[in-house]
Amino acid sequence: MRKLLLSSIALFSLMIFVAPRLQAQYGPMSTSVIPAASLIQPEALNQMLQAKKAPIILQVGSHLLFTEAHIAGSKYVGPGSEESGLQALQKTVASVPKDRLIVLYCGCCPWNHCPNDGPAWKRLNDLGYKNVKVLYVAHNFGDDWVAKGYPTER
Description:
Elements: H1 2-26, E1 39-40, H2 42-50, E2 56-59, H3 63-68, E3 70-71, E4 75-76, H4 83-93, E5 102-105, H5 117-126, E6 132-135, H6 141-144, E7 152-153
Parallel strand pairs: 1-6, 2-4, 2-5, 5-6
Antiparallel strand pairs: 3-7
Helix pairs in contact: 4-5
């Protein structure tokens, strides 16, 4: 019993003290790093598109997902969970003013499991972009965007 308790304490300590340091060293692993103020709801983005006030919209997930369907006018840059995708993102926004509205999205899976949005958001913030939003996709792109009839291209 004592060994189990000590093992549990050791595991808890590892989670509390070591995991945040690893995340800081190796980058965010999820959407949990994105503050609520940096989220944009699908309806709000749809309203912007309807009002012809489209921001720069960049898909930071799977290329297969992008080819199946994507937000009208968006551009594919690569998966935010891979360094090649983050480099492509950085190159894509290199000439964009730091205060221009940029919306990132993935839509591969439920919000809490997305590996791409967090790293992409962090990279742009680290580069000094001040107006970066991430589309909040609660379930997946099909359910939260396409099925609602929002502007989509294939």
